[in-house]
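Notes continue from the previous slide.

Worked example: a multi-chain complex. Inputs as given:
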Amino acid sequence: MDILKPSFKQRAFPQRSRDDGRSLIKKLLIFWLLIFVQFQATAQAQERLRLATTTSTDNSGLLAVLHPPFEKQYGVKIDVIAVGTGKALKLGENGDVDVVMVHAPGAEIKFVEAGYGVERLAVMYNDFVLLGPVEDPAMATRADTITAALIGIAGHEQTFISRGDDSGTHKKEKSLWQKAGIKPAGEWYLAVGQGMGATLRIADDKQAYTLSDRGTYLAYKDKISLVITSEGDPELVNPYHVIMVNPAKRPHVKTGLARKYITFIRGEKGRDIIRNFKKFGERLFNPGAAE
Amino acid sequence: MDYFSEAITAALTLIFSFDEEVYVVVWTSLRISFIAVILAAAIGVPLGILVVLKDFVGKRLLQQTLNTLMALPTVVVGLLLYGLLTRQGPLGDLGLLYTTTAIIIGQAVLILPIIWNLSIAAAGSADPRLLPTSQALGASTLQQGKMYAHEARFAIIAALVAGFGRALGEVGIAMMLGGNIEGFTRTMTTAIALETSKGEFEFALALGILLLVAAFLANFLVQRFQKIR
């Protein structure tokens, strides 16, 4: 049997094994080619700057007009990761992005003091508005201040949609409740854990109150029926800052490109684009510092 | 109903006017999931056939584990890989988080148990005389494996398509590891999630329709393959 084996083997398998060998090599080649193409596509693509920013800036549509001129001028690509301010700062802390643009001064200062960020600079500002149904069952429009309006909502137990995602808007909302001396809880208070745009849609569907930045509200104005029920309180100012992730802590940060980006959006061109970005004739963001 | 029918009209217009934004997203999705399938197949198919060819301790346990892993939740895969790939994670130096490569790895992990397990089923359903015959003829393990792969090729292709469908339709991994970056890691599913939240229902619907078409097409191809046999 042992002597017969090789000849049997040859008769049963020779053709097949040679063929298989060739096609196996071909398949392996194709396989590695695909992997190669994939990595090539990732590697050889233009230099990419990673920006973590808030859903409010991204959903408003500002970045879609602010970034292309910069990308064109420097032949680079900006990867926008739109999350809540809390998550954006976390991404910066971990070094998963090069730059963050957020709107929660308290958290930003902590971020810089902890050594995760450097060069915290003002970019633009707008304000928060309290939105609610036209009927205004909580009579928020009659309140003089935002805290009085919130007290009215809680008192009437009118549905309030909270971002609930540790974003800048959520942080602001929490501080306003605190100033109003209310611990919001109960069936009327819904934390949805979503971005600004999604939150507006939910609030609109439920005809509820919610806090929004003016930029996103204007961007969504034609898609929702909610109206502004409280605005103008100095408490409601909403400044945006840009911070570069500290290269001393996270050495792979693209400092050169990050600085170019920061200079661009704070410079003449960037300010012009921000100033001229309008929805329904209204400006969404004002360039510069809030003061 | 008006809202819905108008949205469908607008979505079809987007599809048939070959809107660039729509097709960039579609292409990204198809490319990512296709490579993920190839990666998972390169590992899963040989392992699946090997399980059929060899008897070993723990074979039952392995198959039970694979059965369980077939229902692997996408967000768990996303979560674990996020922890590995973030800059502070063990593989952070590769800088893979928020790239298409990260999504590919995630999807490959997700569908590996599916392809592996279905390959076991595929090879297991081959003619039972195949193993003793090829052994008697003195075929090596590699040759036996090739015989099985050849015999079960249609069932294996079906396994790959099942994996492809799962990868194409998942949203958790693409969102957590890709970051939904426009023109780069935005896939059909993450775009649908985003555009719906933005109120761009037509755009989301157009992608939804294309996603369905892709799934149907894949299944149609499998059935054609099976007919050829």
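Summary box: The two ends of chain B are 45 Å apart (CA to CA). Chain B touches chain A at residues 31, 35, 38-39, 42, 86-88, 92, 95, 97-101, 104, 137-139, 143, 146, 179-185, 197-199 (CB under 8 Å).
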